[in-house]
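As described in the Methods, two query proteins were run sequentially through the folding procedure within a single session, without resetting any intermediate state between them. The first query and its resulting structure tokens are shown here.
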Amino acid sequence: MRKISEECGVFGIWSPERKPLPFMAYYALLALQHRGQEASGIALNDDGIIRYHKGLGMVDRVFNREELEKLGEGQIVVAHNRYSTTGMPIPNNAQPIVVRHSKGNMALCHNGNLVNTYQLRTALENEGCIFHSTTDTEVIAYLITKERLHCGSIEEAVAGMAAKIEGAYSLVVMSPTKLIAMRDPHGFRPLCYGVMEDGSVVVASESCALDAVGATFIRDVKPGEMIVIDGNGIRSDERYCGKTETSHCIFEYIYFARPDSVLDGISVHHARIEFGKYLAKDHPVDADVVVGVPDSGLDAALGYSMESGIPYGIGLLKNKYIGRTFIAPGQEEREKLVRIKLNPIAETVRGKRVVLVDDSIVRGTTSKRIVRLVREAGAKEVHMRISAPPFQNPCYYGTDIDSREHLIACQHSVEETAKIIGADSLGYMDLGHALEVVQRNCPGRGYCTACFSGNYPTEVPPEGAKSRFEEKIRKEKS
């Protein structure tokens, strides 16, 4: 069980003129690196001819100047950073997925998870479709291709596909002449667009990617909305809007998104400070310094300090060249990464009572190691505060928490968990207060809290459906 599996990041740009767009996509993927560190890819459309490059690893390992120049110039590009929520970490699962067929080439990038993948893929296989990956994204690509064979346009094919899938999806789709962005009716995963001075239109998972390429943010894509961009401008199709209540993932604000992003009108940085303030109100403690665990615990720690009046200090230094600990494939490797990823600043914590603020606890292994680091640096007391409620349930919408078995909050009380991780006390964010923070900024909007509350906004897939394709491949290899 990893600490938390990251989300994917999608990006697309339509330009009125041929340009070396892969370089722009590269900058955007760097800005979205936090959403996926397993694989990266870029596909360029040059007058209907699609060239692409993708591979396993972080952006700067998959791409260099030579690879970007080799892709050349064009008018449309789509790009993707991946972390596997469905599908194994193999090269075939890297995106974009490129499809060549009689109605024109297509490239597709997807962030999210479908809940009816197993049924859809089984039906497609029975019709003779041959799959090269274990991702639900390839299911989406096949469905669009099937629809396109009897539709008059790519956007109608995408709309037809959307009627068949259920779950979380933020998509960017590239055809020979169009860039299409679509978000599921629940709005689980973020998606926004902006424009550049030369008239280029940019679509991205987060607004920080628009900033990275110099685009001006226009607005978020509405839940259920499809946006079509081509030489005729920007068109919005809202046929699926309002079909269900919105269910934005609240964990995006707690952990996934970059603090400098604005998701659906809410500043991530501001939300995390507010989370920290509520932590201080709900779980006060006599202490000397508040320390945040880099990176996503820093803003909440600042909020805790502001509310409690306890000084904020930099007590842990992160090696910025090391990825998030859950990216490592095995537990032993993750343990090694924790040791080299974070280093305590002894002057901040020595002889002091420390409030240590982090974003989440999944199985407790990483938290235990961090508490130990702070104690070894001389802290007299360590009081752990978590800016997320306890994880109690699997997620089927893009967060790779697929079993209650290893969730420490399902097996132990708060007091028992504090003892296991070596903390003097432990306090979690109250779910009601977390909802209050986001709903205060956007009244009336719904949020998905299933991983905390067990209230799922869709039907959940059958037991084991997320891993059956991986199991099938393993059996075939053996």
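Immediately afterward, the second query was submitted; its sequence and tokens are:
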Amino acid sequence: MKKVLALALALCMVFALCAVSASAEGKLVGVAMPTKDLQRWNQDGENMKNMLEAEGYAVDLQYASNDVQQQLNQVTNMINSGCDVVVIAAIEGSSLGSALDLAKEKGIPVIAYDRLLMESDAVSYYATFDNYKVGTVQGNYVKEALDLDNAEGPFYIEITAGDPGDNNANFFYSGAMDVIKPYIDAGKVIVKSGQVEFSDVATPTWKTEVAQTRASSILASFYADGSSIDAWLCSNDSTALGVTNALEDNYDGEWPIITGQDCDISNVKNMIAGKQSMSVFKDTRTLAAQVVKMVGQILAGEEVDVNDTETYDNNVIVVPSFLCEPVFADVNNYAELLLDSGYYTADQLA
């Protein structure tokens, strides 16, 4: 009986693989990533390429070196070269209008990957993590670490947000500020620099060096007298790294809570060393797998999985979206989340 069941299972797997191969045969998927400068985009691109190829698709994976015109050219070439679906993680969400118009003209579906494509009705679907929740996770971490509901305070906090050209940056910022701002309004939390609005705290292209320069300026202007900072709310790991570098160079007070996002290797090492308090873990394997599933559903003419049809308005349409769930990692659980799951090896974090 066991042999019969095993044979039946093996035959089912063969038939499933044949079905996948048949549906993917001859199909080309374009994958446009913004840059290789950040670790996470290398992981996203390679994860998606490997998963798509495992399903039998041909893949055209391109990185644009954070050059908007280069990405526009790459996406245009993908469309003109016969891609059946294009997946785009945009450098700047409103910059690809002409390429998206061409995709619509040719009937090529477009999936916005982790960054919403703006100002276009040619966006078929959006796959991302719950970006507002990412911000609330960061804000709640600070709230609980400082015990803002019970401690007397006041507490001193500074804020470093993300790229104004990335629609996600506003979600991260809004989620965190919706948690923290009531305490600012009540006087329990003080932003000594006075820089609170998104336009004041944003970091163009998420650059570590830009975040470091701004943080160094804040430290020189407002904390040179030996004042302590209790927390520095950073939207992602590249900005957190810049803030950490600035603190190491220009700060002698008690080390603050520092938030982040993406669990980049250098930042996880900083968590282990006590230099960064947490990072929001967005398992790019999960997101890539969801996109591969969506690609298959599109090409098979099936209903595409979405779980949000209200939130992501790109100023022309509300884009049907699938939101994956973020969780936070810190020194207490990083091993379970990152090592036990195979996301990193122990050697990578040594």
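Residues 1-22 have pLDDT under 50 and may be disordered. We note this only descriptively and draw no conclusion about the first query from it.
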